[in-house]
């Protein structure tokens, strides 16, 4: 009996020792539904919430990897993840050949679909409102069709309410999450989403640092579970929690 207890104790110690803490980062400007700051807690800390943390928690729940989440200026997020010491994973990343030299890409776990969010009754000839520095190329929108003078979506909403523009271009998954979180103000729910036909949805991936010693093992765990969750509908169910209206 004593030997059995000792053996069980050794297994527990080995399991704890094998647990690997990893850190996943996203941009600190917040990008729902992927990742964003939640309300301040009693210690003024703001938890990291979103679809990407939910998915990564789920795919690693039965593994030895234990994820933590931080939101940083995105360039710093990428820089730290390239080194693979303080940060090992980047959430909600788009693929590029340049990034693939530094990172391993998981299979996609979210597609972002380009759309217009339109103000009811607005004149069709009005321009779209937009954010300073936003890349509207994936939406097929010409620069002269967008008033890009706003620094936030609340200012965009004020322009629409004043009759200065008819709506804005955004990925439908992002816009619906902005509605759900109340980041478009009280009238945000009045906006009508219209998918832009003929445009290719943008896939998002987890990027794992090639400099992380267990990168291959971590990626295999992520991909294996992502495939299973996609097949049984769990990814759709998780995403629905972060959307204002049904898909």
Description:
It is a single chain. The protein is α/β, with parallel strands linked by helices and 247 residues long. 34% of the residues lie in helices and 25% in strands. The chain has 8 helices and 13 strands. The strands form 4 sheets. Strands 1, 4, 5, 6, 7 and 13 form a 6-stranded mixed β-sheet that branches. The chain has a 3-stranded antiparallel β-sheet with strand order 11-8-12. Strands 2-3 form a two-stranded antiparallel sheet. Helix 2 (51-60) packs across helix 7 (215-231). The radius of gyration is 21 Å and the shape is elongated. It starts with a helix and ends in a 7-residue tail after the last helix. 34% of the residues are buried. The model is unreliable at 1-18 (pLDDT under 50).
Topology, element by element:
Blueprint lengths: L1 H17 L1 E8 L8 E2 L10 E2 L1 H10 L4 E8 L1 H10 L5 E5 L3 H4 L2 E3 L4 E3 L1 E5 L9 E4 L14 E5 L2 H9 L5 E5 H9 L11 E4 L6 E8 L5 H17 L2 H7 L7
Parallel strand pairs: 1-4, 1-5, 9-10
Antiparallel strand pairs: 2-3, 5-13, 6-13, 7-13, 8-11, 8-12
Helix pairs in contact: 2-7
